[in-house]
Design goal:
The structure holds 2 protein chains of 2 kinds. Helix content of chain A is 43%, strand content 21%. By secondary structure, chain A is of the alpha/beta class. Classes of the chains: A alpha/beta, B alpha+beta.
Chain lengths: 223, 469
C-alpha cells in the first residue's frame, strides 16, 4: 500500500511515515505543503492520503476539494489541530473520509489508516480470505489451510495488495506504483521475483494454485 | 430596586398636574372671594347711606334726632338680619337694629369683620355723615351722624365654597383625563425602547446580528443609542473573533509540537531499538521540547505585555536612554547579522529619554531587528535611527532593504500568529508572535508602532514613545 502524508511539520511527517512503514509495511511519500501534496496526489495512485489542514501555500481543505473535483477518490484522513465541530463538519463535507485531531495516538492512526484502505478497496474485515488462504492485516500473519506461512516484508506487501483486490487483474505497473514510494527505482522484474517466492511458499503442502499469471496483463489472486 | 422612567414621568406629571389643580382652586377661591367682598362692600355702603338717610331733625325744638324705622331696607338674609347703629355726633344713639351688638371697632379703616352669635359679619363704619333732611336744622340739633352697618357674610362663604368645589371637580376630571392620556402616550412612546431591548437580548456569542428596529432608528432620542449599540456590537464581535482566532491559533501552535513529541515517543516504543537510535530520537525530542518551551515563553510574554497595555499592572518606571537599549539590541543581533552578512547601521540623537523598562524596549528592538535581518538579502544594510518627533515623542526607525511587505498584508503583520510567508516559518523558527509582542509592549508604554513598506524596496518600522522630561 502506498500512502501520501501532507504535513508541514517535518518531524511529525517523518514519525508518522516511519511508523506506517515499520508497523504496517506501507510505502509513504511526504509532501510539506499543500501544492506539493496536490501535485503528488494527482500524479500517483495512493491508497490513502493523510492530510493536515493548516498547510503553507494551499490550505488542506482546498487540496481536498481539488482532489475530489478531479475525481481522485483515494480515501483521505484529515489530521487537524482544530477540533471545533464546524471545522470537522466542513472537512467531512468537503470529501474527507475521516479525521483525527492532533495530538493523536499513533496506534489509532494506524488502525484508522488500515480501516480506510480496506474500505477503499471494498473490504470490511481485517481478515482477508481467498479460498483456504487467510491474511490477518492487523498483525500481518498469513495462513493457508491452518498452516502458518512466513513471508518476507516485500512478499507480504505484494500478497496483501493482491488480497485486497481478489479476482481482479493487477498489473505489474500497478503493483510497482502501490508498493514503492517515489524515491525507489522501479524495476518490474523485481515483482516477478516476489511473485515466484510467494507462489513457492503458498503452495507448500497444497496443490491448488492461488496466484495466476495472465500473460501481458498481470496477476490474479483467486482459488 | 429599579427605577422606571414610566413611573418617574408619571409621578412628575401627577405632581405638577395636582399642583396646577390646587393653584387653580386657590386662585378661583381667592378671586371669587374678592369679587363677592367688593360687591358686599358696595352694598354695605348703599345700605349704610340709606339708613342714614332715614334720620330726620325733630319737629319740635328738642335736640333728639328722629329715625324713621318704617323705611329700613329689608335684610338680604332673613335668618341673619343686618345690624346697624346710628349715633349723633354728640354720642346719643339715634337708632339701632333690634339685635344690635357693638362690634369691636378697629382704629383705622372703615371696614371690618366680626363674629356675632356664631355668624361672621362685615361692617362699615362711616363718620360725619350729614343728616339728609331738607328741613332747616334746629340750632341745637347735631348735624352729623356716626353710622355702623354690618351684614352677614355667611352667603359669601357659601358661594366661595361652591365655586371652589366646582373648580376642584373640574380639575380632578381633567387630571384623570391627562393621566390616562399620559399613560397611553408613555406606553406608545416607550414601545420602541422595548423593541430595541428585545432585539438586543437576541445577541449572543453565536448570534451577532443586530437589527435596530426601524421605529427606534427614526426616533431622535433612540437613534444615537441604536448607532452606539451597533458600533459597540461590531467592536465586540471583532474583538471576540480575534480572541477566538487567537485561541484557535494558539491551540494549533501548541498541539503541533505536542503531536510531534507524542508521535516520536510512540514510534520509538513501537519496537525495540538500538541504543544509538534511542539516543538520536531522544535528542530530537529534547529539541522539540525546547521549541515548545520557547513558544510558551513567547505566549506568556505576549499575554503579559497585553496585560500592561490594559493597565492591569502598575509599575514604577525609571527614565532611561532609548539609544542605549537600541545599542544592546543591536549587540544581541550581531551574530545573526554577521551570519547573514548584513550590516547594522546605527544613528542616534543624544539624550532621548523615555520612561520604560529597558528589557522591554530591548525586546521590541530585537523583534524588529530580527525581522529586518531575516528578510533582507545578504550583504544589505539595516538602519536603526533614534530621534525625536515633534519634541514630545521619541522616534525609533528600523529600516531594511529587504523583500518588503505587500499592502494587503501590511494590515495584518501585527496580528498574533501572523506569518509573512507561511512556507518559511518552519525554517526561520518564528511563531508569528514577535511583532504582536512588540506592538503590545509599545502600546503598554503609550506609544505607537507603524509599518511602511514597498515590495522589493524594503520596510520601515516606526516606533514612537512618549518622551520623559
Amino acid at each position: 500500500m502506498r500512502v501520501l502524508m501532507v504535513e508541514d511539520e517535518l518531524r511529525l511527517a517523518e514519525n508518522v511515515a516511519r511508523s506506517l512503514e515499520e508497523a504496517a509495511g506501507y510505502a509513504v511519500d511526504i509532501a510539506n505543503d499543500g501544492e506539493e501534496g496536490l501535485f503528488l496526489a494527482e500524479s500517483n495512485p495512493y491508497d490513502l492520503i493523510l492530510l493536515d489542514l493548516m498547510l503553507p501555500r494551499l490550505p488542506g481543505v482546498d487540496v481536498l476539494k481539488r482532489l475530489r473535483q478531479q475525481k481522485i477518490y483515494a480515501p483521505v484522513l484529515v489530521l487537524t489541530a482544530r477540533d471545533e465541530k464546524e471545522s470537522i463538519i466542513e472537512v467531512l463535507n468537503a470529501g474527507a473520509d475521516d479525521y483525527l485531531t492532533k495530538p493523536f495516538d499513533l496506534g489509532e492512526l494506524l488502525a484508522r489508516a488500515k480501516a480506510l484502505i480496506r474500505r477503499g478497496k471494498g473490504q470490511s474485515s481485517p481478515l482477508l480470505r481467498v479460498g483456504d488462504l487467510q491474511i490477518n492485516t492487523v498483525n500481518r500473519t498469513v495462513e493457508r489451510g491452518g498452516r502458518s506461512i512466513q513471508l518476507t516484508a516485500m512478499e507480504y506487501r505484494v500478497l496483501e495488495y493482491l488480497a485486497h483486490r481478489p479476482r481482479a487483474v493487477v498489473s505489474k505497473t500497478e503493483l510497482l506504483e502501490h508498493l514503492y514510494d517515489y524515491n525507489w527505482e522501479k524495476f518490474s522484474n523485481v515483482i516477478e521475483v516476489y511473485i515466484s517466492g510467494l507462489r513457492r511458499k503458498l503452495n507448500e503442502g497444497s496443490s491448488a494454485q492461488l496466484i495466476h499469471t495472465l500473460r501481458g496483463q498481470g496477476y490474479i489472486l483467486q482459488d | 430596586m429599579t427605577h422606571s422612567i414610566r413611573q418617574r414621568l408619571m409621578s412628575t406629571m401627577l405632581v405638577s398636574q395636582a399642583a396646577l389643580a390646587v393653584g387653580l382652586v386657590l386662585t378661583g377661591v381667592f378671586y371669587t372671594h374678592r369679587q363677592l367682598l367688593a360687591s358686599l362692600d358696595s352694598s354695605l355702603q348703599g345700605r349704610a347711606m340709606s339708613v342714614a338717610a332715614l334720620v330726620r331733625y325733630p319737629e319740635d325744638n328738642s335736640s333728639t334726632l328722629v329715625f324713621e324705622s318704617d323705611w329700613v331696607p329689608l335684610p338680604t338674609d332673613p335668618k341673619h338680619p343686618d345690624l346697624y347703629e346710628i349715633r349723633a355726633s354728640n354720642g346719643a344713639v339715634v337708632a339701632r337694629s333690634p339685635n344690635w351688638r357693638r362690634p369691636p371697632l378697629r382704629d383705622h379703616g372703615h371696614y371690618g369683620e366680626f363674629s356675632f352669635a356664631g355668624v361672621p359679619y362685615r361692617y362699615l363704619h362711616l363718620e360725619n355723615v350729614p343728616v339728609l333732611d331738607r328741613e332747616e336744622s334746629p340750632a341745637n340739633a347735631p348735624s352729623a351722624l356716626d353710622v355702623l352697618y354690618a351684614s352677614p357674610m355667611i352667603e359669601i362663604r357659601e358661594q366661595v365654597w361652591t365655586a371652589g368645589a366646582y373648580i376642584a371637580l373640574a380639575s380632578i376630571i381633567l387630571l384623570g383625563a391627562t393621566v390616562w392620556m399620559t399613560i397611553w402616550a408613555l406606553r406608545r412612546g416607550l414601545a420602541p425602547l422595548q423593541q430595541l431591548a428585545n432585539q438586543a437580548s437576541l445577541i449572543s456569542a453565536q448570534q451577532w446580528n443586530f437589527h435596530a428596529p426601524a421605529e427606534a432608528q427614526q426616533l431622535a432620542e433612540l437613534a444615537p443609542l441604536t448607532d452606539a449599540m451597533q458600533m459597540m456590537i461590531d467592536r465586540l464581535r471583532q474583538s471576540f473573533m480575534q480572541q477566538r482566532e487567537f485561541l484557535g491559533n494558539a491551540a494549533h501552535e501548541l498541539k503541533t509540537p505536542v503531536a510531534v513529541l507524542k508521535s516520536t515517543i510512540q514510534s520509538l516504543l513501537q519496537r525495540p531499538r538500538t541504543p544509538d537510535e534511542y539516543q538520536a530520537r531522544l535528542a530530537q525530542t529534547l529539541e522539540d521540547v525546547e521549541r515548545l518551551e520557547k513558544l510558551l515563553r513567547w505566549m506568556l510574554r505576549l499575554a503579559r505585555a497585553e496585560q500592561w497595555a490594559y493597565g492591569t499592572l502598575q509599575r514604577n518606571l525609571e527614565s532611561i536612554d532609548v539609544a542605549a537599549t537600541c545599542q544592546s539590541a543591536i549587540d544581541a543581533m550581531r551574530s545573526l547579522a554577521t551570519a547573514r552578512h548584513t550590516m547594522i547601521d546605527f544613528e542616534a540623537e543624544s539624550r532621548v529619554i523615555s520612561r520604560a523598562d529597558p528589557e522591554d524596549l530591548e525586546l521590541i528592538w530585537v523583534n524588529l531587528l530580527e525581522n529586518a535581518v531575516r528578510y533582507s538579502p545578504e550583504g544589505s544594510t539595516v538602519k536603526v535611527e533614534v530621534g525625536r518627533n515633534g519634541g514630545n515623542r521619541a522616534q525609533v526607525v528600523v529600516a531594511d532593504q529587504g523583500i518588503g511587505i505587500a499592502k494587503e498584508e501590511l494590515a495584518h503583520i501585527f496580528e498574533r500568529f501572523h506569518r509573512g510567508d507561511p512556507s518559511r516559518n518552519r525554517e526561520t523558527g518564528g511563531f508569528g508572535l514577535g511583532l504582536a509582542i512588540a506592538k503590545a509592549l509599545v502600546e503598554a508604554y503609550g506609544g505607537t508602532i507603524t509599518a511602511d513598506s514597498e515590495v522589493g524596496r524594503g520596510t520601515r518600522m516606526i516606533v514612537e514613545l512618549p518622551l520623559s522630561t
